[in-house]
Amino acid sequence: MKMEKQITYSSPYEISGRLPFRQAIPLGMQHVLAMFAGNLAPIIIISTACGIVSGSPEQILIIQSAMFVAGVVTLVQLFPIGRIGGKLPIVMGTSSGFIGVGRSIGAGLGGNVYAYGAILGASIIGGLFEGVLGIFLKPLRKFFPSVVTGCVVMAIGLSLIPVGINSFGGGAGAGDFGSAANLFVGCIVLVVIVALKHFTKGITSLASILFGIITGYVVCAVMGLMLPITYTDAGGAERACSWVLQWGGVEAASLLSLPSLFPVPIEFDLAAIIPIAIMFIVTTVETVGDIAGITVGGMGREPTDKELSGGIICDGLGSTFAAIFGVLPNTSFSQNVGLVAMTKVVNLFAISLGAVFLIACGLFPKLAAVVSAMPQSVLGAAAVMMFASIVVSGIQLITKEKITPRIVTIVSVSLGLGFGMGSSPTILSQLPDAIQLIFGGSGIVPAAIIAIFLNIVCPKDDEDTDPVPH
Q1: Three-state secondary-structure class, residue 394
Q2: Helix H or strand E encompassing 232
Q3: pLDDT tens digit string along 303-333?
């Protein structure tokens, strides 16, 4: 009689090793729920701006491919192929950083399908360009000491907190934004997450985000039986409340559908290639910050050259791969950086199950429809905590060094101007469009550039320089 091989399970806090499925599945699923809406929003916004009708078969096919691509590229990040991949708990998805430049290209090239094809063509070239940057990252590493990466990580978190708050209130633009019902849902989810995280042990603590979101679904379902589910907007039209679960998409979605290569013809237009290439440089800087946020927040150390290089190469080549399926550039998702920083769960096996679920959503649209029915107020409660955790990771990076007047100058000027521009982009409205596109988005880009510049030009502190008094 053969003896069965005994499986030795690992810890969720260890990067390698296997977890039992009952533990790994919820830990992987909460990563999917954290990034699902953000993965699809850029596709909807940019494709619509390029004349692809919302809800059309073409757009649905691209959205389906976006989930499939995110899952595949995430697996490569987790389990590298050669030098491609960082072997870190990085979750990939469609980058929202390209929304501004994508909409601008769409308008400049006629707002038609040709414009979307030009964006895809530029993404193929830009992705290869970022891959080359990743290969030669080691000599550039000296420009990213902990104070610089800390500023970038903080800028990422600060830029995302308003997004989380908007979701908490029901979603920016919702007619019932900030309603008592939306805030009630958000508060319930937030309380459940905190309570499970700090007053329970085991899987309920580790997967507190997932159980909080499930609670949100249940609360919204119960509220739908007890409260009015519609409201009258300013124009007198009756609309569904944003907290109401919309299951119509589940019924309409097909059971099985395969992604398609080149759903939109690829075009190569210099008007799209130049701004997209610039944005890929920005994405590289942001990815450096994300990787640092993961290693510092989840593992208590800075990333190695190999991890940074592999992560950026995968970022670039993953974007090229995405374009073949009609999907916009893929990058590391800051939402999931915040989740790692908050939970300290870094096990690659657990997160790989989330990637497999994303692939399944790309193949079985009904699964995707169930997740996409999530009300914004449910997601927002989790997002606020995760995004604030990114800021804390940035603080941890900065405080690894002695806080001297030089460090204070770099942090205060880069975050002051960077985050300020991000929160008030109209300050650049009188400047050329190219400058607005690069600097007027989230504030991450100006914060990164200013931090890198000041780190180079500000003289090093003497060893006997007194730290800044607290």
Answers
A1: helix
A2: strand 230-232
A3: 999 999 999 999 999 999 999 999 999 998 8
Which single residue is written with the structure tokens 């942090």? 411
> Please, what sign has the CA dihedral across residues 41, 92, 208, 197?
negative
- How far is it, in rounded angstroms, from Cα 280 to Cα 329? 9
Q: How many CB atoms lie within 10 A of CB 319?
A: 31
**Beta strands, E only, 289-402:** 330-332
Helix (H) / strand (E) element for 92: namely strand 92-94
* DSSP code per residue over 236-262: S-EEE-TTS---HHHHHS-S-----S-
State the sign of the Cα–Cα–Cα–Cα dihedral 317, 320, 324, 328: positive
- pTM (two decimals): 0.78
For 235, 238, 245, 375, the CA distances from 228, given in Å and listed in that order, are 19, 11, 13, 16
Three-state DSSP at 229 gives coil
Amino acid at 101: V
Contact 118, 267 (CB under 8 A): yes
In 10 A of CB 140, how many CB atoms? 14
Instruction: Report d(CA 109, CA 319) in Å as an integer.
Output: 22
Of 355, 452, 408, 436, the C-alpha closest to 149 is 452
- Position 98 pLDDT exceeds 70: yes
Give the number of residues written for the chain.
470
Residue type, 112: N
